[in-house]
Amino acid sequence: MSNDLEFFRHEVLSALAEVTNIRAWDTLRINILGKSGKLTARLKALGGLAPDVRKEQGKALNLLRDELTHCFEARKRVLEKLAIEARLQAERVDVSLPPPPCLVGELSGTIHPINRTTEEISVIFGAMGFSVAEGPDIETDWHNFSALNTPDHHPARTDHDTFYLPQQTPARSTSEQNNTHSLGMCLLRTQTSGVQIRTLLSQEPPLRIIAPGRVYRADHDATHSPMFHQCEGLVIEQGITLSHLKGCLTDFLRAFFDRPNLPVRFRSSYFPFTEPSLEVDIGWSRKTGEIGKGEGWLEVLGAGMVHVRVLANCGLDPRVWQGFAFGMGIERLTMLKNGISDVRSFYENDIRWLRHYGANPFEAVL
Ligand code: PHE
Hints:
- The chain is of the alpha+beta class.
- The protein has helices at residues 3-18, 22-33, 38-45, 51-90, 101-104, 113-127, 141-144, 155-159, 174-178, 194-202, 242-256, 308-313, 330-338, 351-357, and strands at 131-132, 138-140, 186-188, 207-216, 227-237, 264-271, 274-284, 296-306, 322-329.
- The strands form two sheets. A seven-stranded mixed beta sheet has the order 1-4-5-9-8-7-6, with helices on both faces.
- The longest helix has 40 residues, at 51-90.
- The relative contact order is 0.11.
């Protein structure tokens, strides 16, 4: 390569190394390799040379063109990578930053009271070693009733005013397919208790779960909605007794209502899937409506020791495994805690109501 060409090569490569963005890169590329670029001009000038000189210089110029084209492409890839890295750096979200004032004031959204209560319940039981389980809203008759020791003509089936779905084939897990029972009709679950069954069929004890979710019953007035929320609880371990149930639920209610001395009362009751069954009440003042004070009692949840037939229906030996279950209405707990009187207001999406009763998303749950 002639000295002149070597000098030109060196000049171009140093300029290319100094280019720091794609625009400058493109300008340089056009300036050298473009139609009226410097290298192109040299190639064009070949035509006026003597044949032997043309041959030699043409070969050198073509080699240089290939080399420079290659170097330009390589530099482009580097610049593109740098541009992406710079963008990622600039757009990094610092999640530890406090929210901007505009999000904390008037314009901010709030956490719906139902979701807030669900979070609070999860945090309290989470601290007691429970994890959160889920089940489908569209449930089989078997999971919602039969496996829970509720025979076909049991009054509980009508008490619940069930919404049945037109006959269809429900999705089944492998463990369910292996069971010989019929899953029956599909329905909108009337209680979250079916998640007890789903959990017992899919997890090995010992286990502690809560299962918050929607439930449905054909009922509509100031204290009943056709769709509402429950939270189920289930503990299966060895040597679990009624004392564990009482201790666990007393601790929960005192933490939830933030009253360390909240009076808690257990009354005997009946559910097909627990034996013995209990209704749980908290102390309440009839006069002032204040929780934890006065002479009155308010029912807040249902509970009991898991019935041996439920354990057997799920393939567990009741002589080895025992446990307790409980179920609470999330609307009811929220209404009591926040002094809300009409359950329908939860679902009206009235922005003033949501602002008033909604929780600040930036505040710790408990
Ligand atoms: N599923 C019951 C209801 O909806 C509540 C409950 C759950 C009772 C678990 C006992 C044990 O009323």
